[in-house]
Amino acid sequence: MNKNPIPCQYVGWVRIQNLCHSLARQIRHSGFEPDALVAVGRGGYPAGRLLSDFLGILDLAEFKIERYHGIHRAPEGVVRYPLTVDLKGKRVLLVDDISDSGGTFDVAIKHVMEHGPPAELRTAVIHHKTSSSYVPDYYAAKIAKWRWILYPWAITEDLGALLQEMEPRPKGEAEIAERLWRDHGLRLPRASLRQALGMLGELPFPGEQTTAGE
Question: Is the dihedral of CA 93, 97, 99, 101 positive or negative?
Answer without folding.
Answer: negative
